[in-house]
Design a protein that fits this description.
Elements: E1 3-5, H1 12-20, E2 24-29, E3 35-40, E4 44-48, E5 51-59, H2 63-71, E6 73-78, H3 85-90, H4 100-103, E7 108-109, E8 118-119, E9 124-135, H5 143-149, E10 156-169, H6 172-175
Antiparallel strand pairs: 1-10, 2-3, 2-6, 4-5, 5-10, 6-9, 7-8, 9-10
This protein binds flavin mononucleotide.
Flavin mononucleotide binds next to strand 3, strand 5, helix 2 and helix 3.
Length: 176
């Protein structure tokens, strides 16, 4: 597959579309250096501190939460449409007791600028280094959202990742 390095803002509409459906795949390393992948359906691409930043919200119950605290970098990857079902798989089982890369037949491949790998089968890859974290403040959130998103109090930590590299497949739009 022909992938080229592109700018951080070159594929924002495609990224938000994939985030909404089927979800994007967030990859980090556990403390033993094994890659783990989980699905995210929320997040944003923007500019903070004059830098391109991708923000990913990860609940404290996720194995990925521990991985991000250890590795302090991550990749975010967009699946081709034909593999969209894998977003459900990666978003319903945990890396605590599953090797999701092996079970989903996904290939971890070296990133250009971070330790966490990209997913070879995906079409778009963001490589990010954690530069800031921010915990949700329950009393500052609208009551309607607090009730619907956090009935058990499993709050998000927002990981702000400086985007250090983005690679995209040439025919990305047709295959997402
Ligand atoms: C479509 C979809 C979107 C999801 N979005 C998020 C998200 O934005 N943040 C989050 O913490 N969990 C989200 N999840 C749940 C995690 O992906 C799920 O709990 C996963 O099994 C965690 O894996 P881990 O324990 O290996 O980290 C989502 C799941 C699905 C299916």
């Amino acid at each position: 597959m022909a992938k080229t390095e592109v700018g951080p803002a070159d594929n924002v509409p495609e990224t938000l579309q994939a985030l909404a459906h089927p979800g994007l795949l967030l990859v980090s390393l556990d403390r033993r250096g094994r890659p783990n992948v989980m699905t995210i359906g929320w997040g944003s691409v923007g500019i903070y501190w004059g830098q391109p930043i991708l923000v990913v919200p990860v609940r404290k119950s996720r194995y990925t939460y521990r991985c991000l605290e250890t590795t302090r970098d991550f990749t975010v990857n967009a699946l081709p449409r034909k593999l969209a079902d894998l977003a459900t798989f990666c978003g319903t089982v945990s890396g605590r007791d599953h090797d999701k890369f092996a079970e989903a037949d996904l290939t971890p491949s070296p990133s250009l600028r971070v330790k966490s790998p990209i997913i070879e089968e995906c079409l778009l890859h963001y490589e990010c280094e954690v530069v800031h974290v921010n915990d949700l403040v329950p009393k500052s959130l609208a009551a309607s959202m607090l009730g619907s998103a956090y009935p058990q109090g499993d709050y998000h930590r927002f990981f702000f990742g400086q985007i250090l590299a983005v690679r995209a497949e040439e025919n990305l739009r047709r295959r997402l």
